[in-house]
Amino acid sequence: MMRNTPGIQLLFDQLCSLVGWTDADARLVHRAWTHVQPIVADAVEDFYQNIMQHDFTAEVITGGPQQIERLKRTLVQWLETLFSGNYDLAFAESRWRVGRRHVEIGLNQSYAMGALARLRIHINRRLTGTNPGESHCPPECLLAVNKLLDIDSAIIQFAYQEHYRRNLDAVASEKMQQQERLASIGQMVTGLAHESRNALQRSGACLEALLLEIEEMPTARQQALRIQNALDHLNVLYEEVRNYAAPIRLDLEPVDLVQLIRNVWQHLRPFREPLQVDLEIVRPDNFSSVVPADVHRMEQVVTNLLQNSIQAAGESGRVVVTLEEAGPIDHPG
Fold first, then answer.
1. Cβ within 8 Å of residue 100, ≥6 positions away
2. Which one of 156, 193, 229, 327 has the lowest number of neighbouring Cβ atoms within 10 Å?
3. CA of residue 323 relative to chain centroid, distance
């Protein structure tokens, strides 16, 4: 988006006033063009050769040789406008677009100013007749050219800063909106967890009644107990969702890890049977597998680990769980 035209015009007028730019300077710059024009092609070639020699500037040139040729033509036009153009609002807007473009391509403005300084050196050498056999302009001509180069660079810098700030504001606004969306999702999930937990409790009550009806049916009762175990897990998960913002508190009790692993392995039977994966639990002799743990969270961890292991083992594979003494640890209260 182009800055409002009155704003660019005001900036241009202020910069001209600061450096003392006059109509006489404009005529001197036009006069200097006859000296500078013969070296434009070489200066532009050197400009882009230098850019491509440095990774920190070359990385913004992503279009290959064709893009470089386009950029060379653009730089030639920029120099022509600089030395032979009308120094009006259109001139200022064209410079403003350069700064905006630097933000779009991600070119660090310090590098851009450094590259333009190299171009300035070529122009100054030409105007001062530094090279043997070259004529030179009077000092006031050189001064006028550098005034204009300073104005030009300042407009580009102002444009870069403004559009860079706008981009930062846009990113900050997007992050804020994302945080608001996440907060809304969190509230919705918390409400859903509350309602789902109520439904699970009703399901659990029905399941308890069913267990009484099938006491004499061992196979059916075993399947029902698996359902009850799954409902217990879901209750724990929903409770965690409901309290996701609260500190985690572990409900520690003595847990036999070997038995817990075997129970989880049994619960994963529908998941592992098609692959025919076996389980092996390895532990040292006289190893006590009873540890203080939160049984529900530990089952969740072991379930995830075993599911991933079963998938990695593939058909007719083997999952090996090794238990070792890890030494004393501090448990949260």
1. 2, 159, 160, 163
2. 327
3. 40
Rounded Cα distance, 321 and 331, in Å: 23
d(CA 38, CA 291): 86
What is the Cα–Cα distance from 126 to 145, expressed in whole angstroms?
Answer: 12
* Global model pTM greater than 0.90: no
If phi > 0 it is left, if psi is from -120 to 50 it is alpha, else beta; for residue 282 that is beta
The closest of 8, 315, 297 to 158, measured between CA atoms, is 8
How many Cβ atoms from other residues are within 10 Å of residue 99's Cβ?
Answer: 24
pLDDT at 333: 46
Q: Report the C-alpha gap between 305 and 264 in whole angstroms.
A: 10
| Residue 183, phi then psi, degrees to nearest 5 | -65, -40
Angle, helices 89-105/109-128, rounded to nearest 10 degrees = 130
Closest CA to 163 of 84, 77, 103: 103
Exposed (0-12), middle (13-18) or buried (19+): which is 323, by Cβ within 10 Å? middle
Q: Tell me which amino acid residue 36 is.
A: V
- SS3 of 6, please? helix
Whether 8 and 90 have beta carbons less than 8 Å apart is answered as: no
Give mean pLDDT, residues 135-156.
87
What does pLDDT average to over the chain? 83
Look at the alpha carbons of 55, 57, 62, 64 in this order and tell me if their dihedral is positive or negative: negative
| 294 phi, psi to nearest 5 deg | -85, 110
265-305: pLDDT as tens digits: 988 888 888 888 899 999 888 888 899 999 888 988 999 89
pLDDT (tens digit, 9 = 90+) per residue, 229-264? 888 777 777 766 666 655 567 889 999 999 999 999
